[in-house]
Write a structure and sequence with these properties.
globular; 31% strand; alpha+beta; six-stranded mixed beta sheet; 236 residues; 5 helices; 31% helix
Length: 236
């Protein structure tokens, strides 16, 4: 573990993470992607960016680091390993039908790197980390497993593209893909750039189960009154 990664890891507030998951699950039922970004920002004592404009969702200015937060709604495994795939970014490619598989792959990775560099240049960052949370609700209990790692540098990997999928050079026939990109005219998740990785649950920085019954309640009369007061105040 290098010094910078260790410093980032030590900033993470485990007790706050568990408390916020308990509270947000109680209010939302299933915690939304934006809420996960906020939770991670609080737990690393960082600043939430929001808006999906930059690769960095959270800034940890004191360490010149960005965090890209990915949440996957999926049951966590009881075994030691779990393979997770998630969308890293949307990457449109101009005239992609005119390009070979390798050309589209190289272009996708180049755009991915450009998005990372945009966050670096805009916010003065030197490192990009990935927070991946696997979460789900089962009755009154909420489960969350959080992995923290330096963002993969796909540009430094020797990959072979076949169709939309990329595998390491020299791979065997049944080896899993490392990254893939959906074609621009795909019926679902078009232009999405995906990653896939096998995670060891013992490396998670938090792996929790909290009792958090969904207790969200609406008071329409109170909400209408508050909204009317706010709307009236704006025209004064």
């Amino acid at each position: 573990m290098n010094k910078h990664f260790k410093e980032m890891n030590e900033r993470f507030n485990v007790e706050m993470f568990e408390s916020l998951v308990w509270y947000c699950a109680k209010l939302q039922g299933t915690i939304s992607p934006e809420t996960w970004e906020l939770i991670i920002a609080f737990c690393f004592d960082g600043t939430w960016i929001g808006g999906n404009k930059y690769m960095a969702d959270v800034l940890v200015e004191i360490l010149k680091s960005g965090l890209t937060v990915k949440s996957v709604k999926k049951q966590v495994t009881k075994g030691l390993f779990q393979t997770i795939q998630c969308v890293e970014s949307r990457i449109p490619i101009d005239n992609e039908d005119l390009l070979s598989d390798e050309e589209k792959g190289r272009e996708a990775i180049q755009i991915f790197v450009q998005k990372r560099e945009e966050s670096f240049n805009t916010f003065g960052l030197t490192k990009m980390y990935k927070c991946l949370v696997v979460h789900y609700r089962e009755d009154d209990y909420y489960y969350a497993r959080l992995f923290f790692e330096e963002q993969a540098k796909y540009e430094e990997m020797d990959l072979v593209w076949t169709g939309d999928n990329a595998k390491p050079k020299g791979h065997k026939k049944n080896d899993p893909w490392i990254v893939k990109r959906n074609h621009g005219n795909a019926s679902a998740y078009q232009t999405c750039f995906w990653s896939k990785k096998k995670y060891d649950k013992t490396t998670a920085i938090s792996d929790i189960e909290v009792y958090s019954p969904f207790e969200f309640k609406l008071d329409p009369a109170k909400i209408m009154k508050e909204y009317a007061e706010q709307k009236y105040a704006k025209v004064q």
